[in-house]
Amino acid sequence: MKQDSQTEGTPVSVKIRERLKQAQQRFHANDNISGFIEPGELEKLLDEVQEKMQGVLDSLVIDTSNDHNTQATARRVAKMYVNEVFKGRYAPQPAITEFPNAEHLNELMVVGPITVRSACSHHLCPVIGKIWVGVLPNKHTNVIGLSKYARLVDWIMGRPQIQEEAIIQLADLIMEKTRPDGLAVVMEASHFCMSWRGVREMDSKMLNSVMRGAFLTNTDLRREFLALLPGRNR
Predict the structure, then answer these.
(1) Position with higher pLDDT, 139 vs 37
(2) Among the listed residues 231, 214, 234, the one whose alpha carbon sits nearest the alpha carbon of residue 108
(3) Torsion sign, CA atoms 41, 47, 49, 51
(4) Are 206 and 120 in contact (CB under 8 A)?
(5) Are 106 and 158 contained in the same domain?
(6) Of 104, 121, 160, 226, which shows the fewest CB atoms inside 10 Å?
(7) What pLDDT was estimated at residue 4?
(8) DSSP code of 129?
(9) What pLDDT, on the 0 to 100 scale, is given for residue 61?
(10) 158, 115, 190, 211: which is closest to 166 by C-alpha?
(11) How far, in Å, CA of 205 to CA of 163, rounded?
């Protein structure tokens, strides 16, 4: 009770931040912090973000009291950030059912394109694109359902990211879940921080890849994977 009275009135974001600091855990924009959020606190965080967003609108000199288009904008934006576009920061990792490789599959498997919906951590502008995943399994590899790759992509990308780091985070997670002989991840995306602002270049995209294991050492395997990417040039 004494601790409750001491923390009463403290913003929930401060409480979460203090837990992270005490645990010496990083809380960068692309980190998941769900393990440090207690039951009921996400709704309080939503209220706090709404209040701060209302302050941003006020500072932008937008009359939200009389403008019917923006009267509920602060709440809408708060819900968008916490429950949708940045959900990968606040929600735990989706449950992924893993199966043993009973048939000892060892041929290249390609999954994609999987839609990417993310946001640039520099300007919080949308990043929209596609991801392809190549897996070379072995007899010890865990097999996961095709839809689970999409769930993992959505969880990793649902945070403020830069593309170069996001694809590495995703590759690390898939390697951990499947333990294959080789893994390849290719990401192609449009960045609204480049097309919507700044140079306003509408047609430019960023393409990068991560190769692990056999894909890194076997050029024929890497060439086969890149040739099989469905929809890459459409």
Answers:
(1) 37
(2) 214
(3) negative
(4) no
(5) yes
(6) 104
(7) 52
(8) E
(9) 97
(10) 158
(11) 11
Q: Is 211 helix (H, G, I), strand (E, B) or coil?
A: strand
pLDDT at 6: 53
**Model pLDDT, residue 164:** 94
Stated pTM of the model: 0.86
Is residue 233 a part of any domain in this protein? no
Alpha-carbon distances, residue 217 vs 191, 203, 213 (angstroms): 31, 33, 7
Task: Give the residue from 44, 59, 90 where a domain finishes.
Answer: 90
Residue 144: inside a domain: yes
Say how far apart CA 165 and CA 177 lie, in whole Å: 19
Whether residues 114 and 224 share a domain: the answer is yes
Which residues pair with residue 161 across a beta bridge?
Answer: 120
Interacting residues of 224 by C-beta distance below 8 A, sequence separation 6+: 108
Overall domain count for the chain: 2
CA neighbor of 110 nearest in space, from 196, 192, 185 = 185
**Domain region containing 72:** 2-90
**Mean pLDDT to the nearest integer, 55-71:** 96
pLDDT of residue 177: 86
